Amino acid sequence: INYYYGLPNENIGSFDQDRINWEINGLVGITLARNQKDKRTMLAAFGTLGFNNAQTTSKLIQDQKYTSSSTKQSHINNYYQLEGGLIIDEILRISTGVGQQNFQTQTLTSSDGVQTQKNHLTYQVTTIGFQLDLGKVWWTIDCHIAYQKDFTNTIIIPKTGLLFQF
Asked: What distance in Å separates the CA atoms of residue 150 and residue 145, rounded to the nearest whole number?
């Protein structure tokens, strides 16, 4: 589950259920070292496939200073992220990579008046998070920071979930 917070300087006030979305994550890693408690430090590749609702997608486009020709966004808009990074002592995650938010084709007008037909926005992403090892299940608390490429503003997306170890 993730919560679209948006711009770092934005005061969203109260909890807004329309900002809740969901995603599926996976990782593949290679153990680099083990500490005295047998906890691993891993070099890992992370993959995320998520789905944003219409309200979140509209807010994301607006936060990037685009005006959309679409009067109503689709109720489900997928995104994906591919990252590489480290998991240190099976607790701290630090990773970075690229992402893409997909949506229905529409004309986007930037703040400087440039119009383009778009069906996605690309961005760079950095994730910082913590994992609590509960055996075959890990509880994760992460924060995606998305920026650059088609994004004119940095956005923050905190998330939490369960990671099942195979």
From this structure: 14
